[in-house]
Amino acid sequence: MNAIAALAIGMVFIGCCSNVVFLELVVKEDPGAGNLATFLQFVFIAVMGFCTVGKFGTAKRNIPFKQYLMLVGFFWTSSVANNYAFDFNISMPLHMIFRAGSLMANMAMGVWILKKRYPPLKYLAVFMISAGIAICTIQSSGDVKAPRETHKDAAEEERLQFIDWLWWCLGIAILTFALFVSARMGIFQESLYAKYGKHPWEALYYTHLLPLVFWLPTAQNLVGHVKIATETPMVEVLGVTLPRQVLWLILYVVTQGLCISAVYVLTTECASLTVTLTVTLRKFVSLLFSIMYFRNPFTLGHWIGTLLVFIGTLIFTEILQKCVAIFLPAPTPVEKKKKK
Q1: Which of 92, 157, 163, 221 shows its CA 20 to 30 Å from the CA of 265?
Q2: Which positions, given as ranges, span the membrane (predicted)?
């Protein structure tokens, strides 16, 4: 492994893990700020891409504009839906576990659209991932509570709890929708790269630049959450005083840019197996940190579900099989003859 690959792996853990922390701080301060956080992330990456990849508008595209419009539709929808789900009583650990089920959605889309066939072990892995997500979802359903004061009237409190639960069910539906939209985007992206060649940095730039117009209808929502952010308590950082939520948003956007850039560099320097293993381990570390640092509720059922998801992911990506092959010596020619 070269120095660039090692640095990229380090930046994936530092950038992506810290990004999850700052996103959780953002949504704890204002549960509806997911849309604003996504918008700022898109603006930041689009501006950086305009200066580097786009060369201030002078660079020529390798992939036709019409194809990017399709890709942008998938990417924007999945990104906004994933962050908007926080407004529906979805906890950060459940959010991360759900997103870890992307392999399941990719396989389902592959079977449905591309008519692919997979070996039995892949189906076992997807079953484990699906079961793990289902267990975590069921466990989380008993701890649904919106950030509000408890009502004194028992009947009214029961009614509000039922509304909270319905709101949470809508959040689960949004996460599921985002999961399959993201999987469909992956298939479309794969077909684009097969036809026009791999241009990941260009794709990253255009998938963040073109969707900015989609936020025009949500301008009132963005302004409202900006106002909430500016009214949070003031904090001093390096001699600069600014609202606390503004600080969290800045750190979220910067670490998101670092995270995405590190993953893209890693895909150019390492085999896909290394990339998948790094991203999977990063998700597990982020989940553990979210549980311990933010004291998010996590029962035995959650742990069982999480282990099923991550073991299923390792089996699906064949990381577990390769690890077993490393530690178990290959049979000698004599042993092979005895078996015959």
Answers
A1: 92
A2: 34-56, 68-86, 92-114, 162-182, 203-226, 246-266, 300-320
Which residues of the chain have a pLDDT value below 70?
Answer: 1, 103, 140-153, 268, 271-274, 276-277, 296, 328-340
Residue 310 confidence (pLDDT): 82
pTM for the predicted model, two decimal places: 0.74
Range 256-271 burial, b when 16+ CB lie within 10 A, else e = bbbbbbbbebbeebbe
Q: Report DSSP letters for 220-247, one per residue.
A: HHHHHHHHHHHTSPEEEETTEEEEHHHH
Number of alpha carbons in the 13 Å side-chain half-sphere of residue 292: 6
Contact 306, 312 (CB under 8 A): no
Q: Where are the domains of the chain?
A: 63-141+159-196+295-326
Rounded to whole angstroms, how far apart are CA atoms 8 and 15?
10
240-243 and 234-237 beta bridge pairing:
antiparallel
d(CA 108, CA 114): 10
* Widest pairwise Cα distance in the chain: 78
Q: How many beta carbons lie within 10 A of that of residue 228, not counting itself?
A: 16
Distance CA 57, CA 60 (A): 8
